[in-house]
Amino acid sequence: MELLFLGTGAGVPGKMRNVTSIALKMLNERGTVWLIDCGEATQHQILHTSLKPRRIEKIFITHLHGDHIFGLPGLLGSRSFQGGIEPLTVYGPAGIRAFIETALHVSNTHLQYPLYIEEIEEGTVFEDDGIIVTAGKLDHGIYSLGYRFAEKEKPGELLVDLLREDNIPPGPIYKQIKEGKQVTLTDGRKIDPDKYTSDPQPGKIVTVLGDTRPCDMAVQLSLGADLLVHEATFNAENKKMAHDYYHSTTSQAAGMAMRAGVKSLCLTHISSRYTREDERQLLNEAKELFQPVIIARDFLEVLIN
Amino acid sequence: MELLFLGTGAGVPGKMRNVTSIALKMLNERGTVWLIDCGEATQHQILHTSLKPRRIEKIFITHLHGDHIFGLPGLLGSRSFQGGIEPLTVYGPAGIRAFIETALHVSNTHLQYPLYIEEIEEGTVFEDDGIIVTAGKLDHGIYSLGYRFAEKEKPGELLVDLLREDNIPPGPIYKQIKEGKQVTLTDGRKIDPDKYTSDPQPGKIVTVLGDTRPCDMAVQLSLGADLLVHEATFNAENKKMAHDYYHSTTSQAAGMAMRAGVKSLCLTHISSRYTREDERQLLNEAKELFQPVIIARDFLEVLIN
Ligand SMILES: [Zn+2]
Ligand SMILES: [Zn+2]
């Protein structure tokens, strides 16, 4: 899994940071890309990457503020115009359907692929053999969700070389051993499956939060995550402003990472009041409480491993 | 009056051309800027110019295709966020109100300025002492308007130096002379007002058409214009495709300019299939029928004089 930051700014686009969108690339794992949020000009940002809009299979919207959704109608239309025919599902809070359907209807946009819109609340949003996506309600001015993307444990691999060394011949019993079943050979030997399989691989966990003040749900969604992506609209000093506008400071984001015991932290949704020169200070404020931490920039890629 | 092209592409944004928007700058004449169309990321384009969103007083939408309107919600919101408090009026075909109001409502956007939305049809759209804006229905797949912006004649100036030379003393009669009234001086002289005023200055006329096939209304809206901005989505060869998709070719646009007797022509809404190298060919196709003609690029400024 990799995260590709398409927009890392707050509120309004700036020259340095576009409004919010993050791509969760799972090309090796699932052959697909998911998006979290889709601010205006997300499709423009994608033009400068190797992403193909037709590979985008799901879009998870954290909340309905304009800087997180105004790029949706254009992206959906262009995906069709550029030959996308695979289904696409948009998940988001109530209201997302009215927004998308009105924009597509008024503009006479006819998609060449099935579009599913799921208005969701807290809980399991999506689950299959490989992954489970859980949403939780954060503390923002409007209904805002955080998403926890938890890959499922990958079962251990069969240690074929070892089996052969011990003169256990191939056959249907290999499958049984892999599934963890005790088997008895024709020569009477009892086989311990654990000996002949590698340890199961734990799945990776990425948590991406929507805009929020510090809150218990932020911690709960992030528990033990390999990577937490947390907003840090303001610097540590502007705690009061962060509270008044339902946002977080650098230090507050780091505090959440600490409480949740995550493995790493990435700060995003940075106010355009902060320059490139201010970034070191923002980073240091977070580092005082939690490490490792980075500040996202547009087009930053983060490998989760 | 100046035109500033903010987006000159067709259908979907490309690296070279953004989707459609044009600024009609009248800073000297009226202290304001008007927009024609507002495709996605128009506010992003504006970041690279000296335009101030708060100076935008009116937005004229030609038609509701996404590449002409999907930048509206973001621009309206950012104009407020950045301190715009002056009223703004959006003119456009029926449906524009539902689009804007749904986007602002769903995203919980509260504008700090009065927003007026006028759903319009053919006819006079706006008129005051300085200008008259007329709309006419073109030939596109959906209801598409062209706009004619016609400045009113500026009355002649009083030739004060000449009046003084002829020993006509300043006073209320200067105003009467300026207004074209015959006056008689106390010494009996009869004053011909035409002799003491400069010729009235004809107003400039700019016509900006929405997407369209060649049609009589395109000619009617453009009659005698100083500048016609006409779409040329396709090259001359792709006449059939232009017809099928309700667009025009370079040659067809030049033909309209010729029939309307305009003073100059600017082609825009160029398909992304054409590269910078193709532009010379596109231009030559138009030149065979009409000159002077140019092809717009993003951020091109055209002075109308
Ligand atoms: Zn935001
Ligand atoms: Zn168009």
Automatic annotation (TrEMBL), chains A, B:
CDD domains: RNaseZ_ZiPD-like_MBL-fold. Belongs to the RNase Z family. Zinc phosphodiesterase, which displays some tRNA 3'-processing endonuclease activity. Probably involved in tRNA maturation, by removing a 3'-trailer from precursor tRNA. It catalyses: Endonucleolytic cleavage of RNA, removing extra 3' nucleotides from tRNA precursor, generating 3' termini of tRNAs. A 3'-hydroxy group is left at the tRNA terminus and a 5'-phosphoryl group is left at the trailer molecule. The gene is rnz. Its cofactor is Zn(2+). The active site is at residue 67. Keywords: Endonuclease, Hydrolase, Metal-binding, Nuclease, tRNA processing, Zinc. This is Ribonuclease Z. GO terms for molecular function: 3'-tRNA processing endoribonuclease activity; identical protein binding; zinc ion binding. Zn(2+) 1 binds at residues 63, 65, 140, 211. It is an enzyme of class 3 (hydrolase). The keyword Electron transport does not apply. The keyword Magnesium does not apply. Zn(2+) 2 binds at residues 67-68, 211, 269. Homodimer. Its EC number is 3.1.26.11.
